[in-house]
Design brief:
- The structure is a single chain.
- It is flat and about 45 Å long.
- The protein has four helices and no strands.
- 88% of the residues lie in helices and 0% in strands.
- It starts with a helix and ends with a helix.
Length: 108
Protein backbone atom coordinates (compact mmCIF):
# COMPACT_ATOMS: atom_id res chain seq x y z
CA UNK A 1 0.00 0.00 0.00
CA UNK A 2 2.81 2.42 0.82
CA UNK A 3 4.46 1.80 -2.54
CA UNK A 4 1.38 2.99 -4.42
CA UNK A 5 1.31 6.21 -2.40
CA UNK A 6 4.98 6.78 -3.12
CA UNK A 7 4.46 6.08 -6.81
CA UNK A 8 1.52 8.48 -7.06
CA UNK A 9 3.36 11.16 -5.12
CA UNK A 10 6.45 10.80 -7.32
CA UNK A 11 4.38 10.83 -10.51
CA UNK A 12 2.78 14.09 -9.43
CA UNK A 13 6.16 15.80 -9.09
CA UNK A 14 7.45 14.31 -12.34
CA UNK A 15 4.40 15.79 -14.08
CA UNK A 16 5.16 19.09 -12.33
CA UNK A 17 8.60 19.02 -13.94
CA UNK A 18 7.78 17.60 -17.38
CA UNK A 19 4.81 19.77 -18.35
CA UNK A 20 6.61 23.11 -17.77
CA UNK A 21 9.86 21.87 -19.31
CA UNK A 22 8.35 20.51 -22.49
CA UNK A 23 5.87 23.39 -22.76
CA UNK A 24 8.58 26.01 -22.44
CA UNK A 25 10.78 24.23 -24.94
CA UNK A 26 8.02 24.14 -27.55
CA UNK A 27 7.11 27.79 -26.90
CA UNK A 28 10.66 29.11 -27.22
CA UNK A 29 12.37 26.75 -29.66
CA UNK A 30 11.72 28.95 -32.72
CA UNK A 31 13.06 32.08 -31.02
CA UNK A 32 15.89 30.62 -28.96
CA UNK A 33 17.98 28.16 -30.91
CA UNK A 34 19.57 25.10 -29.31
CA UNK A 35 21.04 25.82 -25.91
CA UNK A 36 18.86 28.86 -25.27
CA UNK A 37 15.63 26.89 -25.59
CA UNK A 38 16.99 24.06 -23.45
CA UNK A 39 18.19 26.51 -20.81
CA UNK A 40 14.84 28.32 -20.69
CA UNK A 41 12.99 25.00 -20.42
CA UNK A 42 15.29 23.77 -17.67
CA UNK A 43 15.00 26.95 -15.60
CA UNK A 44 11.22 26.95 -15.96
CA UNK A 45 10.96 23.28 -15.02
CA UNK A 46 13.14 23.79 -11.94
CA UNK A 47 11.16 26.84 -10.79
CA UNK A 48 7.78 25.20 -11.25
CA UNK A 49 9.05 21.89 -9.85
CA UNK A 50 10.32 23.63 -6.72
CA UNK A 51 7.02 25.47 -6.30
CA UNK A 52 5.15 22.19 -6.73
CA UNK A 53 6.55 21.10 -3.37
CA UNK A 54 4.73 24.02 -1.73
CA UNK A 55 1.74 24.80 -3.96
CA UNK A 56 0.90 21.42 -5.50
CA UNK A 57 -1.21 21.88 -8.64
CA UNK A 58 -1.33 25.69 -8.38
CA UNK A 59 2.22 25.82 -9.78
CA UNK A 60 0.99 24.28 -13.05
CA UNK A 61 -1.63 27.03 -13.29
CA UNK A 62 1.12 29.60 -12.73
CA UNK A 63 3.07 28.08 -15.60
CA UNK A 64 0.04 28.15 -17.88
CA UNK A 65 -0.55 31.81 -16.97
CA UNK A 66 3.02 32.75 -17.80
CA UNK A 67 2.82 30.79 -21.07
CA UNK A 68 -0.20 32.88 -22.06
CA UNK A 69 1.66 36.06 -21.09
CA UNK A 70 4.65 34.99 -23.20
CA UNK A 71 2.46 34.16 -26.19
CA UNK A 72 0.70 37.53 -26.06
CA UNK A 73 3.88 39.53 -25.43
CA UNK A 74 5.72 37.69 -28.19
CA UNK A 75 3.18 39.01 -30.67
CA UNK A 76 3.43 42.56 -29.30
CA UNK A 77 7.18 42.90 -28.64
CA UNK A 78 10.55 41.37 -29.44
CA UNK A 79 11.81 38.20 -27.81
CA UNK A 80 13.83 39.88 -25.04
CA UNK A 81 11.01 41.92 -23.50
CA UNK A 82 8.58 39.03 -24.00
CA UNK A 83 10.84 36.65 -22.05
CA UNK A 84 11.40 39.24 -19.33
CA UNK A 85 7.70 39.89 -18.83
CA UNK A 86 6.91 36.15 -18.91
CA UNK A 87 9.63 35.42 -16.34
CA UNK A 88 8.36 38.14 -14.02
CA UNK A 89 4.82 36.80 -14.48
CA UNK A 90 5.97 33.24 -13.72
CA UNK A 91 7.79 34.23 -10.55
CA UNK A 92 4.91 36.44 -9.40
CA UNK A 93 2.32 33.75 -10.09
CA UNK A 94 4.44 31.12 -8.32
CA UNK A 95 4.76 33.35 -5.26
CA UNK A 96 1.02 33.99 -5.38
CA UNK A 97 0.23 30.27 -5.67
CA UNK A 98 2.48 29.40 -2.72
CA UNK A 99 0.85 32.16 -0.67
CA UNK A 100 -2.65 30.93 -1.56
CA UNK A 101 -1.71 27.41 -0.44
CA UNK A 102 -0.20 28.83 2.76
CA UNK A 103 -3.42 30.69 3.56
CA UNK A 104 -5.51 27.61 2.76
CA UNK A 105 -3.44 25.34 4.97
CA UNK A 106 -3.26 27.78 7.86
CA UNK A 107 -7.05 28.07 7.87
CA UNK A 108 -7.55 24.33 8.33
Amino acid sequence: MKFSYLLGFSAFFVIGLVIPGVGTYFLTRRDLRGRGAVLAATVCAVLVGAATWFAFFFAIFAFLGSAVVYSVMHRLARIGPALTVATVALVGLLIFSVRVMDIALSGM
